[in-house]
Amino acid sequence: MDIREALYTTRAMRRVKPDPVPDDIQARILDAAVRAPSGGNAQGWRFMLVDDKDQIAKIAALYEECIAMLWDTVYKDQVAHANTSDDPDAKQFKSIMNSVTWAQENFATYPLLLFAFDQFDTTGGSIFPAVWSAMLQARADGIGSSLTSVLMFKNEETLDVLGVPTEEGWRMSCCVPFGYPTGKWGVAKRRPAHEVSYRNTWGTPVGFEINEPLWP
Amino acid sequence: MDIREALYTTRAMRRVKPDPVPDDIQARILDAAVRAPSGGNAQGWRFMLVDDKDQIAKIAALYEECIAMLWDTVYKDQVAHANTSDDPDAKQFKSIMNSVTWAQENFATYPLLLFAFDQFDTTGGSIFPAVWSAMLQARADGIGSSLTSVLMFKNEETLDVLGVPTEEGWRMSCCVPFGYPTGKWGVAKRRPAHEVSYRNTWGTPVGFEINEPLWP
């Protein structure tokens, strides 16, 4: 697969089938992850693949609670707006809510979870390139994924289920469920790059406009 | 370019030529960045391309001080070890030190910097996928890059040079210099995936060994 197709079409795929992710694909996912850069090439990371049904069920129960907490806290205003409006923002948020609610109700059917852990990475810059590489490599093998940090709401409980030695400084960075998607790949809608980019100083236009995605 | 070639060969390229990065490549870099996922698709990001020589010179002066601080703090033990030992860790660290020292001495010659900013992203999970996409897209166009968060040591001064409205919650995530590499692309050495990966619980072997990179 061309790099640009992967970069443009690896969108959040929460709705996936319960079919297992083959071992050779799992190996490629992890091997791609460790090729990513990390500060000082320290590779202060650990990855955990979870495919045991009992373990996934335990995480699913925590995820369910976390999502309820998410709507009630971080996204409280957006939930209220989505429930009372029909503007584009509300519509987009409703679509994400539907997708996340699907994940909440079906988390236990995910065939494979990837947890990433970091040690002393204060910015996330030494772990999320690796996580994103894992997701891009999966995409090349037809496997969908979605990145979530919501389990942070039940951080202690999650680390306990996974047996993480927090006394050594290991922290959960995120959880990424993988699986064969039920839907189609496509280019996700985004605010155009020139609307979120500047040149040389904040507020100065970047110098070009990109009104349509540059791929395909 | 194949996605796997990009994932395996986009290593830190600090030594790059002063030749400018063409506009069409700059546009592709930013357009690829905004395709990345972010929590709740919030896209709480801003990107800044810096190619003005005076601005780059100001950042170069700050970078020089930050690197000196880095050796003196975070990497103090590793610097001492590298200077007194010849074991593989010491050799690898010396090689990184040489590369970073090159950047320190030549920062002002970089033709293009990309700064990424985030707002309310506590983990980095909503900005570093975008930054890594930018670096992978650049790789596909033959442009090298390296990710650094070291300017955090002079955070206030850097944000001041760039005119960032911190009162709105914007924070610098990282700086990525871009340019045509002077050296060769290659697969970076990493600790094998199975040595940093577990299955289902911490410490349980992942179930396969990957003793050679799975690409090419």
Description:
With 216 residues, chain A is α+β, with helices and mostly antiparallel strands. The first copy, chain A, has one domain: NADH Oxidase (3-Layer(aba) Sandwich), CATH 3.40.109. In chain A, 40% of the residues lie in helices and 16% in strands. Chain A is built from seven helices and six strands. The first copy, chain A, has a four-stranded antiparallel beta sheet with strand order 1-2-4-3. In chain A, a hairpin with a 1-residue loop joins strand 5 (197-199) and strand 6. The radius of gyration of chain A is 18 Å and the shape is globular. At the A-B interface, helix 1, helix 2, strand 1, helix 5 and helix 6 of A face helix 1, helix 2, strand 1, helix 5 and helix 6 of B.
Keywords:
homodimer, two-stranded antiparallel ribbon, 216 residues, NADH Oxidase, 40% helix, alpha+beta, globular
Instruction: Give the end-to-end Cα distance of chain A, rounded to a whole number of Å.
Output: 13 Å
CATH architectural grouping of chain A: 3-Layer(aba) Sandwich
CA gyration radius of chain A, whole angstroms: 18 Å
- Largest interface summary: A-B, 89 and 89 residues
Task: Describe what is shown at a glance.
The structure is a homodimer of 216-residue chains. Chain A is an alpha+beta fold and 216 residues long.
